[in-house]
């Protein structure tokens, strides 16, 4: 028995083949592009996802004979994307992605609608799916009139794999159409967004069977006739499954393109006003909460483009010994911000620059600004009762020991890097596939990896960073209106 975990990201697809004992056998990756036809827009042709998967599977099956023993598939996908299908199942327009901000006006209108926050458990962010459809209704009415089904990116991949319109709870929780506490579509939320229940896919838990691989694909891939496709998960829920975060006190901080601080929850305890996301987990009767910032390593990538130095070069120049904060301060709202502001028009800013400011000072300030933004997330999560004695640190930014020491100090929380091996969304998706095939208990399969080095907060510098964080917190209200009109 082997399982296939598919991680559908914004910039590419990763396919991971896993053996019957949970050991990764091998993986392949394919990349694709994002279209930005107007400021604030972010779109993708779903055909790219299908082509990337077909190509990845061809390589995996050629390289690994065990692929022929495939029994289960799980898909993790970037959340909130609006993939619109007509009655024939054809895509009507490019998918509007999670980082598209064109629907800020529609999001604000939905967010102000009575009972929307109460039922969905969340603010309505411009990146969510419901305001995207409201935007389509207003600006592309002919397309909206033809919409027979709305699928998230992972749901579209499930549709490609099985021929059925089916989606999991964790991904669907980010639409503003799901009653997250009841784990079902809400007719009241759908009506508020101008949608109908028959335009929604069938719901399953991420660890349950969503369907069976289409016979045409099974023949082409050279596998058996009854390969089970799991419900799968949104990318962050899948990452939580890969890192073994299922219960209260378990979580991770991710330094990727965006930044995430996620904690698993045993109970449903939303706090929409804090801009914390409260979503269904990928397994039954569990939830998770997270704070999200839109520009984590993307902030360092921006500085890289400005200075002409590679991101790794910028970070390594700081060394490994944590420095005290300087006068320079960076607010990383390059693409707006989610937690705690829900402000698509917010923009980044440097303060405290002087004639003596150099590249290393700016790099340090960028890493600090991202860390302070993640502390905003931690403060919001603490308000819901979500706390952890320590967190796993994952993502590209976690390769910088300096950044880990800085972040541990700013959060006042020890951080652990997984010792080795797989622990990401692709593994989480493969684990969900295994659960769908075997019916095992989630806690027996979704387990944490071995923790490597534990990064402790620097107590000697904690006070200095607390003071600088207070300056950081005061900056947003002072510059809030500067970026208005640039959503």
UniProtKB/TrEMBL annotation:
Keywords: ATP-binding, Carbohydrate metabolism, Kinase, Nucleotide-binding, Transferase, Xylose metabolism
This enzyme's EC code(s): 2.7.1.17
GO molecular function, one term: D-xylulokinase activity
Keyword hit for Transferase: yes
UniProt entry tagged with the keyword Secreted: no
Positions of the Carbohydrate kinase FGGY C-terminal domain: 252-436
Residues binding substrate, per UniProt: 79-80
EC class: transferase
Active-site residues annotated for this sequence: 235 (proton acceptor)
UniProt domain Carbohydrate kinase FGGY N-terminal: residue ranges: 3-242
InterPro entries: ATPase_NBD, Carb_kinase_FGGY, Carb_kinase_FGGY_CS, FGGY_C, FGGY_Carb_Kinase, FGGY_N, Xylulokinase
CDD domains xrefs: ASKHA_NBD_FGGY_EcXK-like (cd07808)
Site (Important for activity): 7
Database matches in Pfam families: FGGY_C, FGGY_N
Catalyzed reactions: D-xylulose + ATP = D-xylulose 5-phosphate + ADP + H(+)
Family: Belongs to the FGGY kinase family.
Function in brief: Catalyzes the phosphorylation of D-xylulose to D-xylulose 5-phosphate.
Name this polypeptide is given: Xylulose kinase
Originating organism: Paracoccus albicereus
């Amino acid at each position: 028995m082997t399982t296939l975990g598919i991680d559908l990201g914004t910039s590419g697809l990763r396919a991971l083949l896993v053996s019957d004992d949970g050991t990764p056998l091998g993986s392949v990756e394919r990349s694709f592009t994002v279209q930005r036809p107007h400021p604030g827009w972010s779109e993708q042709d779903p055909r790219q996802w299908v082509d990337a998967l077909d190509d990845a599977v061809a390589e995996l099956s050629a390289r690994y004979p065990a692929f022929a023993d495939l029994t289960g598939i799980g898909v993790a996908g970037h959340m909130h994307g609006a993939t619109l299908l007509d009655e024939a199942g054809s895509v009507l327009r490019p998918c509007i992605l999670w980082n598209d901000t064109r629907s800020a006006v529609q999001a604000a209108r939905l967010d102000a609608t009575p009972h929307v926050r109460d039922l969905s458990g969340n603010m309505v962010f411009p990146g969510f799916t419901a305001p995207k459809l409201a935007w389509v209704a207003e600006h592309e009415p002919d397309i909206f009139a033809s919409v027979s089904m709305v699928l998230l990116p992972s749901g579209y991949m499930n549709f490609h794999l099985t021929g059925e319109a089916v989606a999991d709870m964790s991904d669907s929780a980010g639409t503003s159409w799901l009653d997250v506490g009841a784990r079902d579509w809400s007719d009241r939320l759908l009506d508020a967004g101008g949608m109908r229940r028959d335009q929604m896919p069938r719901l399953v838990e991420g660890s349950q069977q969503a369907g069976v691989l289409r016979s045409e694909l099974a023949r082409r891939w050279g596998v058996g006739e009854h390969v089970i496709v799991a419900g799968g998960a949104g990318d962050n829920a899948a990452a939580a499954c890969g890192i073994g975060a299922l219960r209260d006190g378990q979580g991770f901080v991710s330094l990727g393109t965006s930044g995430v601080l996620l904690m698993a929850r045993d109970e449903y305890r939303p706090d929409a006003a804090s801009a914390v996301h409260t979503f269904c987990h990928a397994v039954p009767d569990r939830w998770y909460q997270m704070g999200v910032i839109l520009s984590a390593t993307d902030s360092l990538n921006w500085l890289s483009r400005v200075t002409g130095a590679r991101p790794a070069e910028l970070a390594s120049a700081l060394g490994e010994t944590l420095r005290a904060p300087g006068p320079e301060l960076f607010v990383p709202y390059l693409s707006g911000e989610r937690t705690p502001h829900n402000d698509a028009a917010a923009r980044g800013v440097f303060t405290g620059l002087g004639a003596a400011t150099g590249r290393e000072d700016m790099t340090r300030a960028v890493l600090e600004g991202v860390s302070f933004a993640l502390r905003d997330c931690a403060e919001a999560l603490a308000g819901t009762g979500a706390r952890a004695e320590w967190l796993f640190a994952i993502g590209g930014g976690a390769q910088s020991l300096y950044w880990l020491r800085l972040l541990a100090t700013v959060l006042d929380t020890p951080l652990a890097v997984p010792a080795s091996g797989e622990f990401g969304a692709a593994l989480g998706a493969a684990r969900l596939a295994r659960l769908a095939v075997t019916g095992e208990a989630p806690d027996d399969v979704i387990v944490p990896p071995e923790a490597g080095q534990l990064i402790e907060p620097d107590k000697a510098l904690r006070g200095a960073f607390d003071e600088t964080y207070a300056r950081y917190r005061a900056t947003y209200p002072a510059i809030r209106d500067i970026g208005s009109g640039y959503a």
